[in-house]
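As the next step, I wrote out a protein sequence along with its fold in token form, included below for the reader:
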Amino acid sequence: MPADLVHLVRHGEVHNPDRVLYGRLPHFGLSDLGHRMAAASVSLLAGHPVTALYASPLQRAQESAAPWAEGFGLDVRTEPRIIEPTNRFEGKRMNGRTLSDPRNWHLLRNPRLPSWGEPFADIAARMLSAMTDARASVDSGEVVMVSHQLPIWMAHRALAGEPLHHDPRKRRCSLSSVTSFTWADGRFTETDYQQPSADLIAESTDLGAV
């Protein structure tokens, strides 16, 4: 039998003193608080039969996966399909000045797609494909996949049958949160959402890329 559960874990807080939208930019690793968040998420599944661990290739996800690897004695399998989406606002501060600059208006012409980056439908498709393959990669147990806010939210909305376009301010996917799915009747069904770092988020100064 394949895995019983697939857990999508968001990375911890990133060291981002300039508060830019970092997207896929290199050299954005976890802050000290982010490392604490990552460790807290591991404690949530202590005693669970986690048999495989996957992570996005970006530094913050790889660092967030490290305590999972140590805690469960697993190697981190890098999975490109669960990476942060492309975003043409990378490196910019997402404030009124950026959004009101006429040079950026063409990027905002279709927020339902969205026109500033990878289409929501493509993000959802690659996430569900990666989850399906990860589930089948083991004979039993549970799989952890360390990813990013928007990919996890796209998996949630796709499986819930909700429109993929949304208000980014209303995503339910906090730092180091764990969203869990089981397989039933030929599809994934969400079973749980937990925030093991809820008490640490109040200390956070960087809430992640949009």
Observations:
- The first helix runs from residue 32 to 44.
- The radius of gyration is 17 Å.
- Residues 45 and 178 are 10 Å apart (CA to CA).
